[in-house]
Amino acid sequence: MYAKAQVIGHLGRDPETRYTQSGQMNVNFSIASSRRYTDRSGQQVEKTTWFRVTAWGKQAETMDKMVQDGYLMKGKQIFVTGRIELNEYTGNDGQQRSSIEISLDDFQLLGSRQDAGGGQQGGGGGRSQQAPDDAGDLGDVPF
C-alpha cells in the first residue's frame, strides 16, 4: 500500500530528461501548487507548496517528446497523479529539510496561466494541437 497524490500546479522549471546507468529514461520537474485565502485579519494570503516529480517508462517518453515539441515547459499548468513520498535530508547549511516527491503514474497538460481553458490531454500519449506559447506573462506564478 502507498500514498497517492493528485496535484494541479504550474511547472517551476523546464522538465529535464535523464538516464540511469542501465539506460532507463526518466523525466524530472517541479510543480508549484498555490492556495489563496483570506486570514482572520482580512489579509490575502498565498501559500505555495512545491512538489518534485519523476516520470519513468512510457510516461517519461511521452513527456520528453512533449518537451522537445515545445508543449511542456516552465509555467505550463499540469495535473499529475502518482505515488507520494516525503524525503528528509540535511541541507548544505546543516539544517534538516524535507521534500515532497511524486513518482508519476499519469498526467494531463492543462495549459499555462495565459491559456484560456486549456484541457489538453497528455497522459494517454496525446498532445496538444495548439502551438506552443511564446514567453508570455505568467502573472503571479511563484518562480
Summarize the structure.
The protein has 143 residues and is mainly β. It has one helix at residues 57-68, and strands at 4-11, 16-19, 25-38, 44-56, 76-90, 96-112. It has a 5-stranded mixed β-barrel.
Written overview of the protein:
By secondary structure, this protein is mainly beta. Helix content is 8%, strand content 50%. The protein has one domain: OB fold (Dihydrolipoamide Acetyltransferase, E2P). It has one helix spanning 57-68, and strands at residues 4-11, 16-19, 25-38, 44-56, 76-90, 96-112. It has a five-stranded mixed barrel. A hairpin with a 5-residue loop joins strand 3 (25-38) and strand 4.
Task: State the low-pLDDT regions, or none.
Answer: 116-143
Along the chain, the helix and strand elements come as: EEEEHEE
- Structure classification: mainly beta
Name the overall outline. Answer: globular
- Main β-sheet, spatial strand arrangement: 1-3-4-6-5
CATH architecture: Beta Barrel
Count of individual helical segments: 1
Q: Count the strands?
A: 6
Radius of gyration: 16 Å
* Through-space gap between termini: 34 Å
Q: Indicate the percent of residues in helices.
A: under 10%
Average per-residue pLDDT, rounded, comes to: 81
CATH superfamily: Nucleic acid-binding proteins
Largest sheet report: 5 strands, mixed, barrel
Question: Which fold name corresponds to the CATH topology?
Answer: OB fold (Dihydrolipoamide Acetyltransferase, E2P)
Counting structural domains, the number is: 1
